[in-house]
């Protein structure tokens, strides 16, 4: 199971990102654990400056802007 | 993967863009040059005359709406593509350790082209500081990034022409550079919140600006258009509608009495009025254009617009998480002073 974190202070783009990931996971049948990180100090500890950021199993894979559905599916597979 | 396979896939993805973009551009230009004809035709078809209040208002609306929307789409697309070359991480690396002066000028310029959303102002702020970007330089970036934005430029270009748009760009940069210099000289680092100073950045995240292919850049541009134009078009419509009403019905020189250039208090009043309003340049500008047509002074108007965008109450509340009040007060004071100066200079010169 993949541990996925969406980093962002709760703006709309962060919500969209989390939703895209959840949908992609549901569509491909991959089990994930999705967490939204809104605490600024924690976000910064990943070195992400532009939100939303995405962390998969401790690795920052994306920062700044909503990722494409295709890109998300690429991370999951 | 062999090196040969990737370029072919890219080339295939690129082909539709290479055909589509020039076609779209040609169409864009063709429509743009015939906007007056279209508005004239439509007004005639409604059997209205431009000598009447209604005729003038409808003509204004039908001419300005497509014009502003076209400019928005064009400029926002280009900016969306340009922004793929400037990730915030990259900008930060360019600015780290820069001295005041040259650093402020670079920061303000990079503020225009680096993708920026006010919701990530705080992480960006901390990210810059912790990477060794001086406080004054960081502020130059933070002031320029929202103030000189593609929406404001597109609207100014559409409604006031390229000279005013260029002046706004230059003066916006000047205010950002000047304010950053002053804040840097005042050495206000001690007014950062303690937890901000304590933060040490983790491993730098993978820069998101690298490894873009051209089709991806074009797609990013198009996404930018959908996101931004999709958000602001209702404001543009309402704004132009209001502007059209003012244009058609408010008597000539009505505004000159209290927003004209010889009213000294108009500029500060415009700045103060702008603070509680928040980034609705798209809705405010068309109204402003109509007011200017009725005798309001351009400097006063530009000061108002800069104040609306650069000094917003919500943004200050966000910044309060990382800054103590003395620093916020200085920030507001310095930026407001810069905007006032811009307003007066404009009123004097034009």
Describe this structure in words.
The complex is a heterodimer of chains A (77) and B (350). Chain A has 77 residues and is α+β, with helices and mostly antiparallel strands. Chain A contains three helices and four strands. Chain A has a four-stranded mixed sheet. In chain A, helix 1 links the parallel strand 1 and strand 2. The longest helix of chain A has 17 residues. Chain A is globular. The termini of chain A are close together. The mean pLDDT of chain A is 82. Chain B has 350 residues and is an all-alpha fold. Chain B has 17 helices and no strands. In chain B, helix 8 runs parallel beside helix 14 and helix 14 packs antiparallel against helix 15. The longest helix of chain B has 36 residues. Chain B is flat and about 70 Å long. At the A-B interface, helix 1, helix 2 and strand 4 of A face helix 4 and helix 6 of B.
Q: What would a concise description of this structure say?
A:
With 77 residues, chain A is of the alpha+beta class.
What characteristics describe this protein?
heterodimer, A: 77 residues, alpha+beta, four-stranded mixed sheet, 3 helices, 4 strands, 40% helix, 27% strand, globular, B: 350 residues, mainly alpha, 17 helices, flat, disordered N terminus
The poorly predicted ranges of chain B are 1-5
**What's the tally of helices of chain B?**
17
User: What is the ordering of alpha helices and beta strands of chain B?
Assistant: HHHHHHHHHHHHHHHHH
Largest interface: A-B, 25 and 27 residues
Topology record:
The complex is a heterodimer of chains A (77) and B (350).
Chain A: E1 2-7, H1 12-28, E2 32-37, H2 40-45, E3 53-56, E4 59-63, H3 69-76
Parallel strand pairs in A: 1-2
Antiparallel strand pairs in A: 1-3, 3-4
Chain B: H1 5-33, H2 35-45, H3 53-83, H4 88-95, H5 102-113, H6 121-130, H7 135-147, H8 150-160, H9 162-185, H10 194-198, H11 214-249, H12 256-259, H13 266-274, H14 281-293, H15 298-310, H16 313-319, H17 325-349
Helix pairs in contact in B: 2-3, 3-8, 3-11, 5-7, 5-9, 6-7, 7-9, 8-9, 8-14, 9-17, 11-14, 13-15, 14-15, 15-17
């Amino acid at each position: 199971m993949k541990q996925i974190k969406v980093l962002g202070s709760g703006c709309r783009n962060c919500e969209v990102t989390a939703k895209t990931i959840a949908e992609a996971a549901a569509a491909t049948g991959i089990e994930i654990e999705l967490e939204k990180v809104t605490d600024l100090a924690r976000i910064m500890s990943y070195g992400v400056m532009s939100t939303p950021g995405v962390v998969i199993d401790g690795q920052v894979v994306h920062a700044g802007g909503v990722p494409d559905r295709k890109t998300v599916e690429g991370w999951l597979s | 993967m062999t090196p040969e396979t990737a370029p072919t896939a890219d080339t295939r993805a690129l082909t539709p863009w290479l055909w589509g973009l020039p076609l779209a551009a040609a169409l864009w230009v063709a429509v743009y040059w015939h906007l007056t004809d279209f508005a004239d035709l439509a007004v005639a078809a409604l059997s209205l005359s431009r000598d009447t209040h209604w005729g003038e208002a409808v003509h204004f609306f039908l001419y300005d709406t497509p014009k502003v929307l076209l400019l928005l789409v064009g400029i926002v697309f280009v900016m969306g593509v340009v922004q793929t070359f400037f990730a915030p991480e990259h900008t930060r690396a360019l600015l780290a350790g820069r001295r005041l002066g040259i650093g402020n000028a670079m920061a303000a310029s990079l503020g225009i082209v680096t993708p920026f959303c006010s919701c990530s102002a705080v992480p960006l702020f901390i990210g810059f500081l912790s990477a060794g970007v001086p406080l004054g330089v960081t502020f130059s970036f933070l002031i320029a990034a929202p103030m000189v934005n593609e929406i404001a430029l597109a609207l100014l270009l559409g409604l006031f022409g390229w000279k005013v748009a260029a002046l706004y760009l230059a003066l916006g940069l000047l205010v950002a550079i000047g304010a950053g210099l002053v804040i840097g000289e005042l050495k206000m680092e001690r007014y950062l919140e303690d937890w901000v100073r304590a933060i040490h950045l983790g491993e730098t995240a993978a820069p998101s600006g690298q490894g873009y292919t051209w089709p991806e850049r074009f797609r990013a541009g198009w996404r930018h258009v959908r996101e931004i134009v999709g958000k602001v078009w209702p404001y543009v419509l309402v704004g132009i509608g209001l502007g059209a009403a003012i244009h058609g019905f408010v008597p000539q020189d009505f505004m000159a009495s209290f927003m004209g250039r010889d009213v000294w208090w108009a500029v500060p009043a415009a700045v103060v009025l702008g603070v509680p309003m928040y980034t609705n340049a798209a809705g405010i500008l068309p109204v402003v254009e109509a007011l200017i047509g009725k005798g309001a002074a351009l400097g006063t108007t530009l000061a108002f617009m800069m104040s609306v965008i650069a000094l917003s109450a919500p943004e200050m509340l966000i910044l309060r998480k990382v800054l103590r009040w003395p620093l916020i007060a200085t920030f507001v004071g310095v930026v407001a002073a810069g905007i006032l100066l811009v307003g007066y200079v404009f009123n004097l010169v034009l």
